Amino acid sequence: MEKTVHIVHCIDTEGPLYESVEATFERLRNIFNLDLEPSVELLRRLQKGEVDLDGMENAVRKVVDPHLLAYNDTWDKVDGMLADILSPAYRNRLLDSQGRGWIFNWFCVDHVGYENNPRRRDMGYHNIFDHYRSVMRETKSSQDGMHFHFHPHNFRHDAHCCATHWWANGDNLQQILCRRVIDRMWFPVAHRAGFHVTRPDSHWFLEQFIPFDFSSQSFTPTDEDKAQFDIMVGRFGDWRRAPTSWRPYHPAHDDYQVPGGCRRWNTRCLNVGTRFNLMTTEDVRQAFREAREGAPVLLAFTNHDFRDMRPDIEAVRSMLATVSSEYPEVSFRFSEAVDAMRRSMGLKPTPPCELEMNLRQSGAATHVLEVISRVPTFGPQPWLALKTASGTYHYDNFDIDVPFHRWQYVFDEETFPLNALSDIGVAANNAFGITTVTVLNVASGKISSRTRNNPDTSGDVS
């Protein structure tokens, strides 16, 4: 059996982020219940551990570490970092066992539907995705992955706050994906949870559409982690029951944290360069030890593009250099996320889904869309995206004729009459992680199709 550790660097790709001194102290109040008067001078003292906080000094120092507060608060700063880390010279500072350099996986979010934006996030559909896709092309970084990240909205629609339900406070998820399908002919095959949050709603959504999930934060909290009230008792990223192994698993239908009979693959992904659930040398050693024993191992870790990622990368490189020398019989491979899932779990290649679209008239004002795929889709139905002639986007379910193979949708006064639409988009993955997107332009009748086999930043269009 192959004894390989697949190394997957996942980046929660969110663009620039600004934080004022007052906002930093607001976070300290939310995290530690500390009511402190904001000032630069007090912040410096907290960073040095000079303020008596009844035993919480080290935990607070971790949160206000100067590296964590040195945000990339403009695109110029983000792009300056990217220009360095995407260069061959930087990628190749440490080569894997096959002589390959570092690989990045960009899990891109759309900041949309917010009413309050004090951290100055880049708002708009496709903004971050398009920016990174352009950078990937300019730097010829086709080895890197482009994937999906979503932030559920809180009740006040604050862009800087967390939530746990994907559509309780709006249809932003559907709007993002419908635009991604129709405007960019792109649909996600791999996902990382925003704020590390999975709950039954998102668990069952992913099980319908997205085969690969890099969200588990199974971890034994340290005393410093336990001092942070905002992540206690499973708040937000609740992975207390999940496996601590580096082996991907199928989750259970009624409990996303434990192994079971679902279709998608979930895997552990710890943090680097932040304040909690930090990957350690012992975690890396565990991955190499499991691989030596014959387990399929995927070592995934995550950080953000709104901080300088270079110190985090160097820390991981140092851990890899140390641990790999202890296990000479185990190789390690820098990997794109989908490729790592396929290789680690020995998934068998299958052809892409065809998503053949046929539109027929049935009565004076009724049209029926039939979609067929001879190759089974990952979930029981594809994603259906509709764009109206007035420019609005909508998602709906298909009527399922044969699960995984044939579907139909009726356009009439109960849905939309066909003449009210400009585009109809259909998207699906297969179990191997090949994505197919097909878009019908209603006025011209032209059908465009794109098949994307990761790693890839463009795709084939016909």
Report on this model:
With 462 residues, the chain is an alpha/beta fold. The protein contains 13 helices and 18 strands. The chain has a 7-stranded parallel β-barrel with strand order 1-2-3-4-5-6-7. Strand 16 (434-441) and strand 17 (447-453) form a beta hairpin. Helix 11 (281-292) crosses helix 12. The longest helix is centred in the last third of the chain and has 17 residues, at 310-326. It is globular, with a radius of gyration of 23 Å. It starts with a strand and ends with a strand. Mean pLDDT is 94; it is low at 457-462.
Name the structural class: alpha/beta
Residue runs with pLDDT of under 50 for 5 or more positions: 457-462
How does the major sheet shape up? 7 strands, parallel, barrel
* Share of helical residues: 25-40%
Biggest sheet: strands side by side, in what order?
Answer: 1-2-3-4-5-6-7
Number of strands: 18
CA-based shape: globular
Separation, N- and C-terminal Cα atoms: 40 Å
| Beta-strand percent range | 15-25%
Number of helices: 13
Radius of gyration: 23 Å
Detail the topology: elements first, then pairings.
Blueprint: E1 4-13, H1 21-32, H2 40-48, H3 57-63, H4 66-69, H5 75-85, H6 88-91, E2 104-108, H7 127-138, E3 145-150, H8 172-184, E4 190-193, H9 200-209, E5 212-216, H10 223-226, E6 265-271, H11 281-292, E7 297-304, H12 310-326, E8 331-334, H13 337-345, E9 356-361, E10 367-372, E11 383-388, E12 393-396, E13 399-402, E14 406-411, E15 421-429, E16 434-441, E17 447-453, E18 460-461
Parallel strand pairs: 1-2, 1-7, 1-8, 2-3, 3-4, 4-5, 5-6, 6-7
Antiparallel strand pairs: 9-10, 10-14, 11-12, 11-15, 13-14, 15-16, 16-17, 17-18
Helix pairs in contact: 11-12
